[in-house]
Specification:
The structure is a homotrimer. Chain A is mainly α. Chain A is built from 15 helices and no strands. Chain A has a single domain, classed as Ammonium transporter AmtB like domains (Ammonium transporter fold, Orthogonal Bundle), CATH 1.10.3430.10. The first copy, chain A, is globular and about 100 Å long. Chains A and B meet through α1, α2 and α3 of A and α1, α7 and α8 of B.
């Protein structure tokens, strides 16, 4: 009896003693989850810097178009992010549960939209960019759902695309090309969009902002333990494409093109997207080199020929920076990732191309209803005053030329 | 006896077994706190990017004033942050306990000072900016103490102002307006400060840096678990004000003003400050839209009339970007936050306006003692060489004009 | 017997009850380590922003050299980071264990290389920059090994250099000066590198990016609990050098030099490097003030005299921004850190100077084999088109001059 009491006493003591750490462990779990979410938030801010400052300034190279490019960037981001959140709220997954993941997914949609807009840069009014955003987001979400979340049951198996080579870069580029194809008239083609070759430094600023924060884009939704390896892979891929771009640019053009340096240097980031958390460093570097070569070849050789052939203009060359390297990245996963579901991966690429092309053609027709232009858009059309900016040598001539 | 020994043995065993996790839990607590502080540090760095790059480049639009605006930004930050730390050290709260919170509070003071300086941009010499900083920080700290920490017992109750709509934005703006009112002479008014309308891209760069990092400003001192929701609210408010600014600018001016896009797009961030951690996403978006409209209306309609009426110049229009949206944000809390202490909130706004106006007037008089000018300040006055910069069309004429 | 069973039962129960929290604690430990690594990753991204955007734009001030400076920055980073990783992989420390520390160390090497390149800016072709990177990294790693890791047994004792005043800043600067000394011919000296004094705003952008992210550079590898204090020390040192630079520039030159503001403001960050985690805030501020004065004195007084004396050009003045403040920081540790190993610290400085000077001289000779120039490098030599940029007043004359 005495023993029994003793034992009960001890069991009670035991229960209390142990429950402390157990409770603490539960609280610790909640706090760890919160800290991990704040780290995702940090990466979300990095992505926002890429969207506004990176994409915005990379596009500041069309003649007399600096303010429009930056304003369009502002509007495209501000339309697409709330729209994506609105879509998410239809799922009934309200509250702030997983809200940071939704923010990152919304930023991915905005990134894809900005890539898309690059193809038609210099052709649209501000209101048309907003319409483009409204049309783009649902189609983007459809493709995301079909390819990554098994929507419609078209793909059975895991698609490898952590950093979005396929669903973000290739989708956005092909959607944009389809919009351009569906909108551009013969007259538009004949009036080329002139480059403002004084804006190299701004473009390089945008380029560098994208380069710097690219690891956060690819690792945005990756588990904490995998972030360092992913980051190193992305950085090595970018180093690879940067070196390759220099050599390819000199080789293919005779001289270095600052536009190649601003653009093709980033192709490594695009191509490593699919396999950023799975590749080993050496492979990542090699993928970067290949992407840099492919992209520079696109800008230096393919662009002028394709433009002549199709009579359609891809203003920023999104096919060469996002389209080709994106698909390269999706295909590279077949070699890099052991045990990959080959059918699922290839189907994902084909579906993405199909949805992007189809919905882009439709969207282009809808946008064209709001007005087409025979002359390229210039800032003065919609903006107050005159941005003599860095064109101030002959502003008057230019102004009379273009209105 | 044997049992007794067994039991003692078991109790000892128990004690050891349990003490491991207990100790671990204590260490875990310390580590979690350290990690949480490092996350605050990350946000502190984001705020620093806003202070120097954001505010700095947003202000690079006054004619022949690019270098001064950036140098003034450097000096204002470098004077106010150590000064705020010095004040803190008087409290006897030495050591590195809570040092990261102090850093963030010091950055808030610097932000408010930079807002204040925007009102008198183009009127002060570099040394006068530093004097402005020395005068500003104590008054700012006084208002912070009275409004947020119950100083002097004037406010009994919690004031809702997490992101500083009232104590940072409205305070800085009104202080600056009072300085301008107290300093500007009739002659100064008649010699307007000319805009360098070639600097749109720099202003938009500053604007975008502010936009991107704004969530970190508002969430700087928020608990980890609340950071994601706060960030989403701030981003949605900024999206709202960006879209609203476009529509309002076109509506009110006929054409888009790049200055509106650079400035009023940020009004959503100002206005969501008070309620950034308490609002729901839809409300945040709505507050952003309202703030964008109010701010654009200020820039497009009120500014020119008020300038004519008062014969005083608010160089950067801080009343319309920080003053009006700041007070809007403070008042919006009355509607958004259930169970808010209405009296405390309204008293906080009134006290802030009163302290800012009074201390601004005094500070203006003090600064004026160091010299006033009939001509707007130009870089050449204090800077070596000539920044032909983007004004190189008529540098010689300008130079002879102004010296 | 019954008691015995009871006791066994209880022990079993105990084992289970306790094993839960113990296991949890182990998992918690792993998660905490992962979160801490992600925080290092955040700082690694900040450093990357410094390398590309900071150093890149700070160097955009040589006449007709904007695109080259930025392209060179891209190439130097992209060569040095993979090279440093390659070196690490020779150690057989494969896998992703500690991979984030390696990334940060690789970035430190890249930073030192960029400092080095600043001394010869405007003298090298793009391919020569890459060769410079290939030559630099092994020597840098040798010095790092000898000074910080006890390599060759030359230093017995801990060297205080957390933020790299000695091994990063002083090493890079002296290596660069040696390269310049070893390469520059009399004819090169006589053809001065002209400054593009229209690029102040770009230089100030680069400067501000460096200022903002400097705390992450110094605290990159510091334990979480020490990050806040380190950050505050770095920020106060930078505030000190910024204020000191203003006063020294006015004092020594009569007027403010924008180049001083862009450069010497950062000297506080260089000098606080060695003791960033050990100093108290007041000392940090004082070190910053001293560094600002020393650096501005270097730019304003020493630079022109030394150039005339040695007939050698240090294009960016790395001696005055990184060399002198770096050694000042290393020596300051003798005063600031109690119980410091004085012999080890001084030996570290001497060895660093010796290795940097020796290897720089050799590297200069090797690079010179690839071609020297009598005229400063201009963009048109290797770049397509013409960056009329901000020199558009006389683009035609310049073009005919230079080809």
């Amino acid at each position: 009896m005495k023993n029994c009491i003793k034992n009960i006493l001890m069991l009670t003591l035991l229960a209390f003693a142990v429950s402390g750490p157990v409770c603490a462990a539960e609280n610790v779990g909640t706090t760890l989850a919160a800290l991990s979410d704040v780290q995702k938030y940090e990466r979300a801010i990095h992505i926002m810097a890429m969207l506004l400052i990176g994409f915005g300034f990379l596009m500041v190279f069309v003649k007399k178009y600096g303010r429009s490019a930056l304003t369009a960037t502002y509007l495209l981001v501000s339309v697409s992010i709330p729209l994506y959140f609105l879509k998410e709220s239809f799922h009934g997954v309200g509250g702030s549960e997983g809200i940071i993941d939704k923010l990152i997914l919304a930023e991915f949609a905005a990134a894809s939209l900005l890539i898309c807009a690059g193809a038609v840069l210099g052709r649209l009014k501000m209101s048309q960019y907003m319409l483009l955003g409204v049309l783009f987001v649902p189609f983007y979400a459809l493709n995301e759902w079909v390819v990554l979340n098994g929507g419609l049951g078209l793909i059975s198996g895991k698609v490898v695309d952590t950093g979005g080579s396929i669903v973000i870069h290739a989708f956005g580029a092909i959607f944009g090309l389809a919009v351009a194809a569906s909108m551009t008239t013969q007259k538009e083609y004949e009036t080329p969009i002139e480059c403002d070759d004084t804006s190299d430094r701004y473009s390089l600023l945008g380029s560098m902002v994208l380069w710097v924060f690219w690891p956060s884009f690819c690792a945005a939704l990756v588990a904490p333990a995998d972030v360092p390896r992913t980051a190193v892979n992305v950085i090595l891929a970018l180093c690879g494409s940067t070196i390759a771009t220099y050599f390819a640019s000199v080789r293919l053009r005779g001289k270095i093109s600052a536009a190649d340096i601003a653009n093709a240097t980033l192709a490594g980031g695009v191509a490593i997207g699919s396999t950023c958390d799975l590749a080993v460093p050496g492979t990542a570097f090699a993928i970067g080199i290949m992407a840099g070569i492919v992209s520079t070849f696109g800008f230096a050789i393919i662009q002028s020929r394709l433009t002549e052939l199709t009579k359609k203009v891809d203003t920023c060359g999104v096919l060469y920076l996002h389209g080709m390297p994106g698909i390269l990245g999706g295909v590279a996963a077949l070699v890099v990732v052991s045990g990959i579901n080959v059918v699922a991966q290839l189907t994902a690429i084909l579906i993405t191309v199909a949805i992007a092309a189809g919905s882009g053609l439709i969207s282009g027709k809808v946008i064209a209803v709001m007005g087409r232009r025979s002359e390229p858009y210039i800032d003065e059309e919609e903006f107050e005053g005159e941005e003599s900016g860095q064109n101030e040598v002959q502003p008057l001539i230019a102004a009379t030329d273009t209105v």
